[in-house]
Fold this sequence. Notes:
Four copies of one chain form a homotetramer. Helix content of chain A is 55%, strand content 3%. Mean pLDDT of chain A is 92; it is low at 1-19. The relative contact order of chain A is 0.14. Chain A is mainly α and 293 residues long. Chain A has a three-stranded antiparallel β-sheet.
Amino acid sequence: MNKVLRPTQQRKSKMTAPKPDAQRLTEDWWRTRIIDMKPGVIRYFGYPIEELIGRVSFAQMIWLLMRGELPTKAQGELLEAALMSAVDHGPQAPSIAIARMAATCGVGLNGALASAVNVLGDVHGGAGEQAVELYLDIARREEAGSAIDEAVKAGLEAFVAAHGKVIPGFGHRFHPVDPRSEPLLALVERAAAQGEVSGRYARIARAIEAALSSDKSKRIPMNIDGATAVIYAELEFPPPLARGLFCLSRSVGALAHAWEQTQQGGRIKGPIPREFIPSYIGPAQRAVPTSLS
Amino acid sequence: MNKVLRPTQQRKSKMTAPKPDAQRLTEDWWRTRIIDMKPGVIRYFGYPIEELIGRVSFAQMIWLLMRGELPTKAQGELLEAALMSAVDHGPQAPSIAIARMAATCGVGLNGALASAVNVLGDVHGGAGEQAVELYLDIARREEAGSAIDEAVKAGLEAFVAAHGKVIPGFGHRFHPVDPRSEPLLALVERAAAQGEVSGRYARIARAIEAALSSDKSKRIPMNIDGATAVIYAELEFPPPLARGLFCLSRSVGALAHAWEQTQQGGRIKGPIPREFIPSYIGPAQRAVPTSLS
Amino acid sequence: MNKVLRPTQQRKSKMTAPKPDAQRLTEDWWRTRIIDMKPGVIRYFGYPIEELIGRVSFAQMIWLLMRGELPTKAQGELLEAALMSAVDHGPQAPSIAIARMAATCGVGLNGALASAVNVLGDVHGGAGEQAVELYLDIARREEAGSAIDEAVKAGLEAFVAAHGKVIPGFGHRFHPVDPRSEPLLALVERAAAQGEVSGRYARIARAIEAALSSDKSKRIPMNIDGATAVIYAELEFPPPLARGLFCLSRSVGALAHAWEQTQQGGRIKGPIPREFIPSYIGPAQRAVPTSLS
Amino acid sequence: MNKVLRPTQQRKSKMTAPKPDAQRLTEDWWRTRIIDMKPGVIRYFGYPIEELIGRVSFAQMIWLLMRGELPTKAQGELLEAALMSAVDHGPQAPSIAIARMAATCGVGLNGALASAVNVLGDVHGGAGEQAVELYLDIARREEAGSAIDEAVKAGLEAFVAAHGKVIPGFGHRFHPVDPRSEPLLALVERAAAQGEVSGRYARIARAIEAALSSDKSKRIPMNIDGATAVIYAELEFPPPLARGLFCLSRSVGALAHAWEQTQQGGRIKGPIPREFIPSYIGPAQRAVPTSLS
């Protein structure tokens, strides 16, 4: 998928060079395609920083660093939307609660951000990545000749068999309809109508939504992860970067909440008011044996 | 400085409400001005998410979450520039090296990002914050009636007395001239010429640069932290957010390098090639006493 | 395996209680068997802290908190050995290099420790956990009637089929023979001879070692992860705690190195000397297009 | 204070050696007194690992790695007590809440531990370090000729002037009397009676407690941080290691709670039950301007 970054080939030719000395070995240990530095010179994938400043937005720079090329205008706009729409879902999310608690513990904003982003693991931060994988799998089934409904049915069955019944990107425990999904899909479909992206993954995601809703009495609509995954798939980001980019996006909420908490004050903020003591459900008081057997 | 977020006042009126019950207490423990959630509803500082999507860029959304209001067009563009210009300075920086090593240890990109961002502490990530504080101090001296050269001299002396000789935002151990500084300053000065920002902190920073270069035979030019600090000060971000926003920016580099390393492969990548063993400088071999005294 | 902690049952009966009020709900959200707190009272699994102090070692306390009961003397000693033997393997390990670099970045020792421990993921920190799982799988095959050699052969084949050719706990890229393995095994076998533990997992691990060495011209001996996994399996720790306990152990090395680096000084220590610049292997310099297509 | 580790001197002599080559430079970049590794050889401060296994406890190993020498039996026992007594104070502490929440987010126990330990910053984890500094300051005043009461009074005044009214190590927002303090002090005083430690810092801490209680109607008794700080000061650990060792100790509680939560199950556990929504205290709904000014 990600055809831009292919360091393996380049590396090989380097390795056929005459016996490297210690300095060469050390420098090669940290070889990179991303940044070219010399005193007074910084270039990202060949572009001098002084030419990028003032002409490239933050989101376009994110694209450049992940992909090795600059995006088209339309690609950049879709990436903006995916990044700006997932910044925060409030302090009920563990990541955000962690950012706020950390801010009262005497670590800098960097530390609050780190403890928060760290928990965007497979369960809390992985739905976008998994949804992209699901879409790609269904797309492969279509390419192999299945009609879309069959491809969706088979893709969902394969997913459930491998990972269980929670379909990433669909359903929300709080929102009956996620207000972020439809506006994001509309952006993708507009870009597809203009030939800027394929529109294929929007179709697949809508077909999944339809399949999930027909299967059950209760509708299971696409959520923010499902909708941003459509964008990431349309933009041909490899699945792990769907998680990586979500981490960048949610970092914004973590930072905002850490900062708000800093201003509200408080020391060593726990999860619940101090009046409340966690329930103890273990053994009653007992004596320590005088010596261990 | 940050007049937008002032939760204390609002909180007080809430607290004069009739005796809160347990649920109220619990919900108030996590009160926020940032996000208003109801089933099917997400609003950031009052703005419904479905109206923001497609109209607000990632950087503008970052502004909204930090400040509580949307930026002007000019403010948003300066923020874009500050964020996009500091994304990466290569794997010699410990944060980036950490991101790359982490990527080979069997943690997700979230974990690699967290270990990396975490080290953007007072020394590695704090220069921007400290530079904003220095600029604000010099501005206060000017307001109190000092001429700019005197204000700079007094501000630098006070800084050195309190924190030592490393002036944050000036000088670079690698670049004789930082190629990012001048283009960033030019953006600020253009915005100032158009009345969009004051231009005051650009002036102060240039005066610091001049003072540092006159003091010594060797020029000590403004670096990326000094230049982005000019932008953050012009945009009236409180100093700790200069660090917070730098963390968001450098997260992009950390993610890009973690991902590049993932593609290069490797398991448990250490800092130096395996052929090299760290120098041991401790005691020679000795016997463990048969029992501790 | 871990029969001590079984909160599910207890929880159920709680949930049949009459409709809980908001305070109850909040307190139950954080229910625990580990610690019982009241003003002036702290008990761990029922044992008052004032009775534990002076009578229970750090390692025995670790056992109590993980298992809910105090260990026997022999169990405590084996746990001491597993914990003390894995504390450090030098700054070539990414975790330790990270601790040292972090210590120069202006974060506290807590931050250095966090960034370091965080990377003890599936690859860098998971070998012990995976080795325990492998031993348990082979033990189940024995219980189902296989002779040990068959059980080992089948277990290894199943492991390789599922996870690839790197057998966790065996072989070392630096040590031809790991000097920690034999002394640890000897402790287990002595405890087994005294009837304190079964000795079964020592047998299984030795059989794996024999099988791996017969398969290849090159011997693949048990390493520290394989040997501590024998101890953890003998002590009936569930596999994830083999990783958790390794994290506690390696935290010691991370702390020691962070502290040594603090004393050596340095600011923003990167992975290689500043004289060396990472190799750039990307595109040559190119111009930024005047506007994105 | 910490006379064991003094790499600076040793380094100097090294640096007078003839011009180092690239390999030497690279290896020296990671020089250490802690571990000496060669293929088949691991020694900590000169002690071969195979001689340490079975003879040295986990706590004694911790001492060796921090100090460069093995402890006496009495020193080792006091360190055991300091480490085992501070392992956990329940899920109301942000560190422990974070460990539990992280465990439901799809990161390994290493990740849960990292996010938790990370927040043991100046406020949540620094009281022990600050208490050691306070004790050392008072001891220096005694050495300079002050009577203990005067030294305590002057030390407290200096502390309050520099850091504010919260005296680290004294008072507890939950326990009127901390049940851990007296048993820990008793261990120190017994060791002092046997000439194993000076007993001086126990005296100082008791004098602080007396001074704080006489100053106010409400008694402000020594807490766990004040008591373990007595031990760390008696054992001549430098203040930052008081925090570092507390991090090791509290890691045990974080691991135990992360593991208990893993067994209780749950996905993406937030700080409060889902029935409760954080209080929103920001602006009412408003329209996004059609374009930014």
